[in-house]
Amino acid sequence: YFAAALASTHVYDHTAGNATLALGINQEELEELLWFFRREDQSTWNYSILVLSFVAMILGLLLLAINIVRNRKRKIHMCIEAVQTAQQAELEAKQALM
Hints:
Elements (H helix, E strand, L loop, with lengths): L1 H6 L19 H10 L6 H55 L1
């Protein structure tokens, strides 16, 4: 029905009465469709989507920063453990020689 309405070249005056349309849509359904597909100022929608995208970007950057800090701490901790293990092995080797 909707595709036929889009392809139609006839202009419908929705204030002309209470007649049923040729497509089988009555006046109430037509008013509902006109309300649903109305044109209005989209700036509030655009700004809300812009704010939502900024929030998502900030959340992504925050998670990235947390991941970078944790990886850096993990690598430093592994390096310190490797040095301590090497020192422990060197101390045991010296004690074995004495």
